[in-house]
Amino acid sequence: MARIHKSTLCENSMKSRPFDRRRSIEELEGSTWPDPPEGSTSLVTSVHALRRRPVGDLTPEELARLIGQNVGLPWLLPLALEFLRDTAPHQAAGGWYDDDLLSAVLTRKADVWSASPELAHQVDGILNVLTDLSPHIQRDIRRFRAAFPSGD
């Protein structure tokens, strides 16, 4: 599984300040969640556990899971976009693309993108490179672009 490494510090567009990828979402937020209640679903248990891991160690699948639950967006969206930007040019050559992370990013609510239009423009740039996407992702792209037109 790929890991999201690179430099220790990453510019966080939503917060406009650097953050340390060795820190967990709990550390970055300054908020510790209690253990999930007994009998919680695997999704709840997983999200709780992933919040405690260094963000730089999260795989694309784990990023998708957290982003899909709107957890840690100020830190995870820039990491997800970095991964998508790095892999988009190679997508056509391999004929396969990790739709889960892209879908998680695209389906965030419009207010997320309104709060950080520079990230929305990055998403649009990534989308311009991708080809041969599933109808499901094409639908997500149409919705994203309708909510946040690239010219805004």
Q: Can you offer a commentary on this structure?
A:
The protein is mainly alpha-helical and 152 residues long. Helix content is 55%, strand content 5%. The chain has eight helices and two strands. The protein has helices spanning 25-29, 42-50, 60-68, 73-94, 99-106, 110-115, 117-127, 135-147; strands spanning 9-12, 17-20. The chain has a two-stranded antiparallel sheet with strand order 1-2. Strand 1 (9-12) and strand 2 (17-20) form a beta hairpin. Helix 3 (60-68) runs parallel beside helix 5 (99-106), helix 4 runs parallel beside helix 7 (117-127) and helix 5 runs parallel beside helix 8 (135-147). The longest helix has 22 residues, at 73-94. The relative contact order is 0.14. Residues 1-13 have low confidence and may be disordered.
Give a quick rundown of the structure.
The chain is mainly alpha-helical and 152 residues long. Helices cover 55% and strands 5% of the residues. α3 runs parallel beside α5 and α4 runs parallel beside α7.
